[in-house]
User: Fold this.
Amino acid sequence: MNKYKILALGLLFDTIGYISFIIPGIGEFSDIVWAPLSGWIMTKLYKGKPGNIAGVISFIEEVMPGLDVIPTFTLMWLYTYVFSGKKNKVA
Assistant:
């Protein structure tokens, strides 16, 4: 998959994670469903040990109240394609 498609998906998934701020009360309940799903999606977008670690971090970030402001998918994309120096790592 193209790295920019992964970025677009990551932005979409980070936006979905922000839903709990839009709907007070109900939104935090939605994290019960979204937290494990976001962790699983992260492991599918980024393979290997980095993807597994990011999946756990994504799960924890979504399940903990108030931490939804952290754009985990975008940060993982930056780590993978900008900071680690990989040109086009395929998921």
